[in-house]
Amino acid sequence: MSCISLDSSGPAQTLSAIPARSWDLINPASSFNPYSLNSMGDTSLKVILCAYEAPQLSQTNFQPQFPITTLSGRENKVFDSSIFVDTYSSNQANGLIQVSSSEGFITDYSHSSTSSSSIRLGEWEIPCSASSVISIGIQDQDFANLMMSQLNTFVSSQALRITNDMGFASNPVIFCAQMNRIHQSATFVLNFERTPCSPSSMYEGMAVKSLVSVTSLTDLEPGRICPVDNSDIQEGALVLAHNNSSRPSITEAKTKAVNFALGAVQYLQRSLAQMGLAEMDIPFEEQVQVINTMAKFQSDNRINQALTRAFSVSPERPLTFTTSKAINAIFHNFHLQSLGDKIFSSGSRYMPELKVLGDTKNGTVNYFCGINNNVASVLEAQAKIHESLDGRFAIKPHHVHDDSLVHGVSLVACAKLGIDRTVADYLFPVFAPHGLMIAEKILTKSNLYMPASVDKQVEQLSAAAREIILENNPNLKQICVTFSNGAAVLKETLQRMPQAYRDTVIAIPVGPTIIIDKTLAAEVYTIIGDKDGLSLLCNGGLRSVMKKAEDSYVRVIPQKEMIFGGHYFIQEQYQKQIKTVIAKEILPKYEIH
Amino acid sequence: MDSIPGYKLIRAFSNRINVDTGLILSAYGINNALQKGSHVVNGTADFYVSYKLVKTRKDSVSLEEARTLLVNIAESLHKEINSNQEIRPYLDFFPFPTDHIVVSLYFVDENQVGLGSGISDVYFSKGKIEYERYEIEKYTGPNSAMGKHYVVHEESYEDALKKVKEQGVIAYY
Fold first, then answer.
1. Nearest-angstrom CA–CA distance, B24 and B71
2. Which residue is closest to B106 within chain A, CA to CA?
3. 20 to 30 Å CA-CA from A64: which of A128, A141, A223, A227?
4. Is the CB of B38 inside 8 Å of chain A's CB atoms?
């Protein structure tokens, strides 16, 4: 279990009560922290990040020892606490994060039972072994660096690993920490990102982030858990929106870390003031109408619902700043800046989420598409593999590449250079020749560059892995078929997953641009065409493939076509081999999840 | 790729039998049956070959025909492996046993769709042979169909070899 606490109500008690194997990220009493309690007094901010090792979760009668104030029990909502941490755990957290402000804004916590794989958090039941995502928006560079450094200290002290450390380059800073912890192997994966918006558009980023935060808090998918009361956050944000002057004065420390909700509201207010709409009183019915109208035009239901909920207030207290222009501005910013994937460290929906084809009763085969794939191509491949497997298994497509060839090639190159996908997606718009991108857009009508969240894949495969582990059937596996650079995405996904999760995965890379080491999964069956020029080129030829794959599981497909002709997924030889591998080599040994 | 001894042998063998049998190599590999964690000793622990035989849609392959073809291919490959001097230093076992050879055959029509009558697939691995039929529900296009494969017969390689020998149809390519 882990927690982040922003609490000034008793740090010493909190720290002293943490069991021996727990850890503190920022110890106000010992670390040099300009924003610590010691230097700031009672109203200052302190951040305590602590975690209990997994074995402790399985102890009976485990009770938290630190003071807890229930969110629902508090009377004063505090949103000026300088830092806003939103926590959303997918259905897996055995680590969880708690947030509190100086007034005791802390979530209720108790451990439900031992063997169980769940933790009781307020009214939510959180299944154990999991991934918690901490998103913290910090306005100040120094403060961000401080946080970063202390996170680093913690991570190294726990012999955990950090992936994808981009560091902090400029304001504003948003970093997302994703924590994957499973039963006995604590893995802490940090995923640092910063908003792509410039400092001048800081509040835009914050506004979007805030909305996304609200979205994540309100539109929880089944099994998704949020330890913070949604309505409180929304209401608190709205209260601030309404009455900015009611904010109590905040300390210098607090000014350095502006909470997302506040940032969003400030941005809204500023934007509306510029439009001369700040004081306009819009009737409640009209607000609803505007929101409903907008909902019809927007495909992203998460944002719609977030907006709807964020702006839905009682008729007795209509908002003054809700206008169609304001909502439009939010949508515009969200889509224009492509912030969806940048700020979601988990569960991004920016790349279209495609439906599963077939009956999942007999199991599901995951398919990771290659580069230069639009939705139609992915669906075609999905149908083909479904047919090749006699319709026996459901096929879940993972649309992990867009249909931009320029973008795709750059991703392949980055993967070969060992640059992970998130970073590659950041680098692309910076280094790609814009003329080439525009030419491609004009000539091919391809979609504009769309990033994809590897974390989403991690989350999805991890969710399946947890279900498999809970089944306690070592022969139950999840199958991932990849084509081309889909192998690179799967490889990166596997690298971010704990070993126990990897062991639930059977990979079938077809025409891969990168070889998935067999240690990264329970089994790896590589299928490659001997005239699949692109795949061979990326891997340095067939001999190199053999060497990289350590003599294992490489099936060579004789081909007549050269280069591009040999590199397409739906060809019969590849399909036949996939079917043979699954039917004759996997099924006799394993069951498919 | 022919610099990999196992691949070279398979391709040479496949080219040769293609003349007599019409079988087209569709996939091959070495060390495909290695258990996780185990390693090759000299470089080649097993061989895997998959062939397709193109027929017409109205053709049918009987179980006896499929058995004979598979046994003949497996025996020929077995003989080739053990008689080839070039591959010998790379073999993990000598003489190389047949249960380290995997042979897969499938029969397709002129549009590369599996045959809907008779045997469509034969799979030999670890001393066991499986014969499959392909029950086609419908042809979904010129090159595609929806249907189900299911095993109609299983037997040990020894039994199959014995039957083929008894019938006097054993042949080495």
1. 16
2. A576
3. A223
4. no
Q: Where are the beta strands (DSSP E) in A124-239?
A: 124-127, 130-138, 173-181, 186-191
pLDDT of A11 > 50? The answer is no
Task: Please give the Cα distance from A94 to A104 (Å, whole number).
Answer: 23
Residues of A in contact with B106 (CB under 8 A): 576
Residues of A in contact with B111 (CB under 8 A): none
B138 touches chain A (CB under 8 A): no
- pLDDT attached to residue B66: 95
ipTM metric = 0.88
The more confident residue out of A457 and B65 is B65
pLDDT value for B55: 93
Rounded Cα–Cα distance for residues A137 and B60 (Å): 68
Q: Could you give the residue ranges of the DSSP H alpha helices within A389-524?
A: 405-416, 421-431, 434-444, 454-471, 486-496, 499-502
Inter-chain touch A391–B43, beta carbons under 8 Å: no
Least confident of A2-16, B7-21, B33-47: A2-16
In 10 A of CB A560, how many CB atoms? 10
Averaged over A51-59, what is the pLDDT?
26
Does A553 sit within 8 Å of B34, measured CB to CB? yes
CB contacts, 8 Å: B42 with chain A:
none
Instruction: State what percent of residues in chain A have pLDDT above 70.
Output: 36
Coil, strand or helix at A182: coil
SS3 B35: coil
Q: How is residue A104 annotated by DSSP?
A: -
Distance (Å) of CA A378 to CA A30, A53, A348, A371, A401: 54, 41, 18, 10, 10
Cβ–Cβ below 8 Å for A580 and B36: no
Please give the full DSSP string across A506-540, using - where no structure is assigned.
Answer: EEEEES-SSPPPGGGSSEE-EEEETT-HHHHHHHT
Cα of first residue to Cα of last residue in chain A, in angstroms, is 28
- List pLDDT tens digits, range A310-328: 444 333 333 333 333 344 4
Joined together, the tokens standing for residue A19 give: 């069991």
Q: How far apart are CA A329 and CA B97, in angstroms?
A: 72
B1 to A542: CB separation less than 8 angstroms, yes or no: yes
Distances (CA, A) of A16 to A22, A49, A70, A154: 10, 13, 21, 17
* Phi, psi of B68, rounded to the nearest 5 degrees: -60, -45
For residue A92, the tally of other CB atoms under 10 A from its CB is 27
State pLDDT tens for residues B110-167. Answer: 888 999 999 999 999 989 999 999 999 888 777 788 889 999 999 999 999 999 999 9
Q: CA A135, CA A155: separation in Å to the nearest integer?
A: 17
Task: Give start and end residues of each alpha helix (H) in A298-323.
Answer: 301-311
- Gyration radius of chain B's alpha carbons: 17
Per-residue pLDDT tens over the stretch A106-159: 222 222 222 233 333 333 333 332 223 333 333 344 444 544 554 454 444 433
